[in-house]
UniProtKB/TrEMBL annotation:
Coiled-coil regions, chain positions: none
Gene3D superfamilies, per database record: 3.30.530.20
Annotated family: Belongs to the AHA1 family.
Matching CDD domains: SRPBCC_CalC_Aha1-like
UniProt domain Activator of Hsp90 ATPase homologue 1/2-like C-terminal: residue ranges: 22-159
Descriptive protein name: SRPBCC domain-containing protein
InterPro entries per record: ASHA1/2-like_C (IPR013538), START-like_dom_sf (IPR023393)
C-alpha cells in the first residue's frame, strides 16, 4: 500500500499523509493534472469522484462531487493557489452544496502536495492545514484519515494500468 505514514497534529491544525509510489514523479503528477485519472482516485472506492471543472492554474477553481452507493452526492471545490509542475500543488479545499457552491459553514483546508523522486519512484507528501483545531477535529470525526488512505491507496492500481 502506498500510504506509509499519517500524522495529525491538533496544535498545528495539520494532517500530513506520506505515500510512496513505484512510478516517476511526472507520472504521479499526471494523476492530479488529468481530471479523468483523478476521478478514479480522489474519493474512496465506494464514493467515486466526478470533476466538473478542473484547471491546475493559480486562481482557478476546480469543482467536483463524490457519489455514494445510495446515489447521494457530496460536493467539493479547490481554489488553486500555486502550481510548480510536477513537484508541487497548493490549493484550498472545501465542501460544496448540490450546485457546487462553497458551503461557508464547513471546514476549509489549505493543502500543499509535494512530489519528489526517491529511489526511482515518488514520495508524495500531502499536508492539509485547517483554520482551527475544531475544524481539523470535525473532519477527523468525519473519517478523513480513513477516506484519504483508501483514496490514495487506489493510485498504485491506476499507475500500473
Amino acid at each position: 500500500m502506498p500510504v506509509t505514514d499519517v500524522t495529525q497534529d491538533i496544535d498545528t491544525r495539520t494532517l500530513t499523509i506520506t505515500a510512496e509510489f513505484a512510478a516517476p514523479v511526472e507520472r504521479v503528477w499526471q494523476v492530479y493534472a488529468d481530471p479523468r485519472q483523478l476521478e478514479k482516485v480522489w474519493g474512496p472506492p465506494t464514493h467515486p469522484a466526478t470533476f466538473v471543472e478542473h484547471e491546475l492554474t493559480p486562481g482557478a477553481r476546480c469543482t467536483y462531487y463524490m457519489t455514494a452507493p445510495d446515489g447521494q452526492r457530496y460536493g467539493g471545490w479547490w481554489q488553486i493557489t500555486e502550481v510548480d509542475a510536477p513537484h508541487r500543488l497548493t490549493f484550498d479545499d472545501g465542501f460544496a452544496d448540490a450546485e457546487l457552491n462553497p458551503v461557508d459553514t464547513a471546514p476549509v483546508s489549505h493543502n500543499v502536495y509535494t512530489f519528489e523522486e526517491v529511489d526511482g519512484g515518488t514520495r508524495a507528501v500531502y499536508v492539509s492545514t485547517y483554520e482551527s483545531a475544531e475544524a481539523l477535529q470535525q473532519v477527523l470525526d468525519m473519517g478523513v484519515v480513513e477516506g484519504s488512505r483508501l483514496a490514495i491507496n487506489q493510485i498504485d492500481g491506476l499507475l500500473a494500468a
